[in-house]
Amino acid sequence: METVPSIARAITSARAITNTQVKKWLDQGYSCDSTDGRNHSAISEASCQGHAHIVEFLLGLGGDPNLLADTGRSPLFRAAFNGHEGACCVCGLRMSSIP
Question: Dihedral through CA 25, CA 28, CA 31, CA 37, nearest 10?
Fold first, then answer.
């Protein structure tokens, strides 16, 4: 099984991040649904950091907002816990539209 690099760690370490940076990583073979060592996806890390525009971008590319971390926490939980209202809105709207 091929290992796909995770952009979650890169998002965690970035203070400011753009859609262009994320697109570049995805073009290099990274996956928006791959996870880091704690099972945090890129959407989860972007939510936790308050990067609502990145969450929206990754969701638009088909990223899964329901992937849970090793603690059982969703991206929506992580955004809410850290007080990131914008990321909460993006995650909440996407999760509510899933059948």
Answer: -80
Q: Give dist(CA 33, CA 64) in Å, integer.
A: 6
CA within 13 Å, CB half, 84:
23
Give the residue from 38, 2, 63, 20 showing the smallest Cα distance to 12: 38
Contact of 43 with 57, CB cutoff 8 Å: no
CATH superfamily of 8-96: Ankyrin repeat-containing domain (1.25.40.20)
Provide Rg for the chain, Cα atoms.
12
Give residue-wise pLDDT tens across range 10-49. 676 666 778 888 888 888 888 888 888 888 888 998 888 8
Q: What is the pLDDT of residues 45-59, one digit of tens each?
A: 888 888 888 999 998
Query: Cα(64)–Cα(44) distance, rounded to whole angstroms?
Result: 10
